Structures
1.
Amino acid sequence: MTEKKAGFPAAVGSRRNEDYAEWYQQVIKAADLAENSPVKGCMFIKPWGYGIWEKIQQKLDRIIKKTGHRNAYFPLFIPLSFLAKEAEHVEGFAKECAVVTHHRLEKNEKGELVPAGELEQPYVVRPTSEMIIGYAFSKWISSYRDLPLLINQWANVVRWEMRTRLFLRTSEFLWQEGHTAHATEPEAREEALKMLGVYADFAERMLALPVVKGEKSALERFPGAVNTYCIEALMQDKKALQAGTSHFLGQNFSRSCEIKFNDQSGKEAWAWTTSWGVSTRLIGGLIMAHSDDDGLVLPPNIAPAQIVLIPVVHQEENKAQVLGYLRLLKAKLEKVPYLDGHLEVELDERDLSGPEKKWEWIKKGIPLRLEIGPRDLASGLLGLNQRHLPHKETLKMTEEELVQRAPQILQAMQEALFSKAKAFLDQNTVKIGSKEEFYRFFTPKNPHKPEIHGGLAEVFFSLDENIEAKLKADLGVTLRCLPLEKEKTEGVCFFTGKKGAKKALFAKAY
């Protein structure tokens, strides 16, 4: 049992194995990450939550730039006529589009504000930017010398969702979207797979989130793409989460947007394009993959700060001494190299009791916690707590040892979180050979009692779209991906018995 203090329970309120969906919401609330806004499906991202996104953005942005891409910005509003140029694309996003039809407000007879000034052409609030960026590319590209064109954008997008959940599925969210144009098909395909590899490496190294790289089926493919590649992660409730996608768009959008160039022989040719992106959904994945019944657990590499210093002072006369020491310790720790910068340290000087501060930071998931009082100063030993270990398990060390060992302790914690999540992924990826076994795997034993069941079902599948749709209707499962791997990827279809089936992963998913 976790320890409880009067007025502020140790745990977040809900347990993962009792009500996972409610537990997820309570972790976000307890960690003070985000909250719902007055507009349905939109959210306020609070400083600690935005701090995580800033870390994702800063670190991934450096990697993207190292691969030769440059940042740009494109308009939020897209003329409706632009979307209509690519039939499959607009059909895929039509039900999620927010549309602007007026450009001002006026008061009516009752003194109420009402839309006025109808636009000649409606504008769609950016659900994704292929069409508007395609228009820009058509102006920027005229010769093979202009290629490849490698552009990235950090922006917000709007997809009008009916069922929303903080970070995982919101009507407005933040993301990064890359868009590139190439002279040849092999170059564009290589780009799409390279960026998929960037996402997989980033998820595993920075978020401690093990993923499977794969290709989407035709039913799950991005509207207008030739191939959609993805990284899939497994959450603690054994549901999958699509954590990033990369699309080979072929020449579909080039033809729609008139992205043409003169090749080396002087002939006019259509460019080959790609697009790829990750979003604030990564924060949702981070929460669900690592957190526990006491709240958020953050991998050190992506935490807004790695260490919190908490003064524990019962006598007012000791306060100045303890705070003075902690301020000096904070300055020393912030000079310690860590990753591509230095350690980031919080000093909690608020007028709250030590236990209150302790539990608040536990719920926030900060990796390392030091609670220091006069006795610690007198003994010369500091008590260090690691978030992924039991909260009463304290490591005693001198200040010098702490300064020397902190980066290694954090790295070990990062690796431990990844290893735990990887073991969970491996244990819950189950090879299934028959239809009957597949249905049993995804059917809870007692539907009236919430329980964690299922996982990733690894099967050979004939890629029959009718069967794929039936499985979704019957069990609520989707084909997450066709894994990109070198080992045997063809066999007998688990559903039809046909030979030549492809290896596929099915799961219930967010």
2.
Amino acid sequence: MTELNSKLQTALESRSELIANLNQKKTDAYRLFHGTNEGHPGLTIDRYGSQLFIQSFHAPLSPDEYAVIEQAYSNHFDIQEIVYNDRSAPYSRRKDPSETEQSSTCLENGHTYLVKGKHQGQDPLLFLDFRVAREWIEQNSQDCKVLNLFAYTCGIGVAAAAGSAKEVINLDFAKRNLEVGQINHNLNPSQTSVRMIQDDFFVVVRQMSALGIKQHRSRKKTPYKHYEQEQFERVVLDPPRWAKSNFGTVDLIRDYASVLKPAILCTLPGGKILCTNNAAKVSLSEWLDSIQRCAKKIDRPVQDMQILEPEADFPSPDGQHPLKIAILSL
């Protein structure tokens, strides 16, 4: 087990400057070990405040490996809880279905977020590689109306409100995601008007963008709620890799335009979209090219583009991060 311990220590040393900077920003949530690029594929270790969060994706940890990890970090951080999720089952599903009664909080840029290692979903309640996007939106949302699409637990919404946005709309299909999101907003009171919409992306955004609803002709029509046409100074588009509903399909590999087109049309001229693609199979250059084509096709060409990369706790030797983030100025 000395080899694993050596890898953990090397990873921790490589993050020393980053962790010091994050501490100054009142941030205690970050990735401690990114196994794919640090010598142990399939193993990730994150700190969420007083919680150490371990996940294995290729094979379960042995008791000895678990003990090495516990010892490696207990000397450096005040760890009150260790949560281990083995996700080596097919489709990266967690094997144990239980929830922890215990919940806690972590800090990011001085903002408080709910932490719960085991819950009804599979993923952590706050994605740490998206920290750079939350920081950008906080710095660029003053007096703006912000539309947060695929909002999950509303981390972007919290950051936008902290940045003095005029209004934030968080849209997500899952009720439990928005329930956590409401807790996160409650933990961070602000003067910003915050609205939660639990509904299908295509239903809401295609109506806001005046594209209209499309349903499969051969199927029975599904009733839907009506929304007024609306545009925003800031739009955040952070879709899952794949999802399907009666109103459309999210497919980041084959058809990114299906989500980007209505998002662009919901953006005011002179506004900005923060958009992502987390499909590892899609290269950055290929994705950016598809963005440019889509924008030109609907006569809303991209005037400027900025690329955000995850911070140093998500190392990528070849610079090809699975999570790709672009800021589009329209």
